[in-house]
Amino acid sequence: MIDFHTYPVMIKEIYENDDELYKVVKNVFGFGFPPQPLDLFFMEMREAGVEKAVLLPLDCSKRHNCEIVSNEIITELMNKYSYFIGFASVDPTMENACLKLEEAIINLGLKGLNLDPAIQGFFIDDKTNAYPIYELCQSLKIPIIIHCGLNWSPSALVKYSRPYMLDEVALNFPDLSIVISHFGWPWVDEALMIAIKRPNVYLDTAILYSGTPSETYKKIFESHIGLEVLERSLRTKILFGSNYPRIDMRRSVRGINNLCLSNEFKEMVFNDNAKTLLGFKE
Amino acid sequence: MKTIINRFKLISKHEIDVINITDNVIKTTHDSSISSGLALIMSLHTTTGIFVNEGEPDVEADIKNQFEMLAPENFSYRHARFLATDGQMAINSVSHIKSALMGFQCFFPIEYNALVKGSRQNIYFVDFDGPQERNYVIQILGN
């Protein structure tokens, strides 16, 4: 099982010798739970049945003058522990963004790009700042995860997070794999429409806004969208993502498993779709 | 009268982890050199518990299973919402309820620098929301 949406912000070891990180994780990212030893990340994975976790950093250099964990630290964690699949982050509004991305992918070996427009402060369809990044990702053949919809960060601005803006991006970059995070909630229908229509657009399951994962998945996937729609039209398009440590992996996995979906569908959500996107399988 | 507070950390490895801490309480009592008094054992969390029971794996499993039934996961808990102070979704009401039902402390008298306890009595720390790094204290009071 692959969890496509996790953050390193609860790993105690990364805070050593970095007093500033506490402040930005709290004030910019909005996470205040006390850090825990790295081993607990792996134990959480084991309890949930997750074998690999996509680890997401966030570069918010322009708007917040910080990185919520650098690409280098993500690389170090990935190289040291096979449980991690490291993604890069660059700030599209910075002049050196393309160079930094090339460095992260080609030299550091990171596997994809994480963008959070609502925190970083750019419009998804910004042709000046964002398009060169998309172009580069397409040529580097790496997936992008883009956060849309509700963002718990206190610094996030909702005006940057509408999923519909990805429609044109997906059209203009047909070979770029784009994952809309959080299923775009509350704009689930927008995100759903684009994922159904555009072959290169995917959705992750980090959708919680109130209630437990079981309640939320039941409400959104079963009552609102319909499980038959997921099975028919989105089998290859949904990736399991927990949003750990904002939401625990264990209960997120159980929430999906509690739905009356076919085993084949669940296998694709938990494993196959992520592997395909990451180039782990043909 | 002397009072000594000893702080301990442990790491739970499972969502519900029943951890026997008896040996540590016995050793801490012995090391305190208190010959007559009281040992108070207390968890510092709200999703954990302390209990005393027979040190037998089936008893441990039965207690764990019964607590699962006392606080079912498929219930509409008010706590299941975003907590801005933590930056997390509070989806662990079941863990809080189990903790409240179990209690967070126990005590034993001390006599001749040893715990006064039944031969089958074991002391357990239980995590209802693991895996996590946890803390508990043993306070020794006496002369």
In short:
The complex is a heterodimer of chains A (282) and B (143). By secondary structure, chain A is of the alpha/beta class.
What does this structure look like?
The complex is a heterodimer of chains A (282) and B (143). Chain A has 13 helices and ten strands. Chain A is of the alpha/beta class. The longest helix of chain A is centred in the C-terminal third of the chain and has 15 residues. The radius of gyration of chain A is 17 Å and the shape is globular. The two termini of chain A are 17 Å apart. Chain B has 143 residues and is of the alpha+beta class. Helix content of chain B is 24%, strand content 43%. Chain B is globular. The termini of chain B are close together. The mean pLDDT of chain B is 95. At the A-B interface, helix 2, helix 10 and helix 12 of A face loops of B.
Helix-strand category of chain A: alpha/beta
Provide the low-confidence segments of chain A as ranges: none
Q: Report the end-to-end length of chain A measured between terminal Cα atoms.
A: 17 Å
Largest sheet of chain B: 5 strands, antiparallel
Neighbour order of strands in the largest sheet of chain B: 1-10-3-7-8
Mean of the pLDDT scores of chain B? 95
Helix content of chain A: 40-55%
Radius of gyration of chain B: 17 Å
Structural class of chain B: alpha+beta
Please report which band the strand proportion of chain B falls in: under 5%, 5-15%, 15-25%, 25-35%, 35-45% or over 45%. Answer: 35-45%
Q: In terms of quaternary structure, what is this?
A: heterodimer
Q: What is the approximate shape of chain B?
A: globular
Per DSSP E runs of 2 or more residues, the count of β-strands of chain B stands at 10
Strand content of chain A: 5-15%
H/E series of chain A: EHHEEHEHEHEHHEHEHEHHEHH
Rounded average pLDDT of chain A: 96
Keywords:
heterodimer, A: 282 residues, alpha/beta, 13 helices, 10 strands, 44% helix, globular, B: 143 residues, alpha+beta, three-stranded antiparallel beta sheet
